[in-house]
Amino acid sequence: MSLTLHFHPLSSFCWKALTALYENDTPFTPNPVNLGDEAERAALLRLWPIGRFPVLEDKGRGEIVPESSIIIEYLDSHYPGRTRFLSDDPARALQVRLRDRFYDLYAHLPMQKIVGDRLRPADSKDPHGVAEARGQLRTAYRMIDAQMEKGGWAMGDAFTMADCAALPVLFYGNKVEPLGNSHQNAAAYLARLLARPSVARVIKEAEPYFHMFPQENG
Ligand SMILES: N[C@@H](CCC(=O)N[C@@H](CS)C(=O)NCC(=O)O)C(=O)O
């Protein structure tokens, strides 16, 4: 098999790549990486010295592809399936990328900041940074809620890379900064995402690891 995904089933950014792979039933070898294991971390660092996953390895084409959005674009170009994650129309493809950047930079990273703070030692917490992240996440929720007023997917009728990016934000975001009653369109969108078979599979495979998700006062 040509493709190997280096990932962890609980990792929010890995969910983006997994959703895209499952969406088109793209064959790949999963390589779950335990970053707590020195040898496994070293192997990931050899592929991508930044040391973050997901990383896609394409032995057939001799490519190492890091970064969730780049992986999805790579799959769309070299292993296209029934779901197209970008678009052949450059203007629409640009809008997909904008939505993807919006989800990653203005919602996913704040969510990651809130979760990451739970892992810090008690004397190294960053309450100011976390408060700022909560504010950014709430701004993103308001925007998502407005975008989703008409239902459907992030780009309207077709499922795209932007929806792969939305899943981890809304799922984990809802755990650390609940959507509540004031973001019902966003909550309905999350429910639609969870009902999609590719997404349901990602969540099902993450379930055995959910106990590792850091709790508020952890
Ligand atoms: N921009 C990267 C972000 C990847 C990322 O932050 N991955 C996290 C897991 S969700 C990670 O590898 N964390 C491990 C660490 O920081 O040591 C992407 O889109 O793939």
Structural descriptors:
4-stranded mixed β-sheet; globular; alpha+beta; Glutathione S-transferase Yfyf (Class Pi), Chain A, domain 2; 2 domains
Q: Could you explain the architecture of this structure?
A:
Helices cover 56% and strands 8% of the residues. With 218 residues, it is α+β, with helices and mostly antiparallel strands. It folds into two domains: 3-78, Glutaredoxin (3-Layer(aba) Sandwich), CATH 3.40.30.10; 90-196, Glutathione S-transferase Yfyf (Class Pi), Chain A, domain 2, CATH 1.20.1050.10. The protein has a four-stranded mixed beta sheet with strand order 2-1-3-4, with helices on one face. Helix 1 runs parallel beside helix 3 (68-78) and helix 5 packs across helix 7. The protein starts with a strand and ends in a 12-residue tail after the last helix. The mean pLDDT is 97. It binds glutathione.
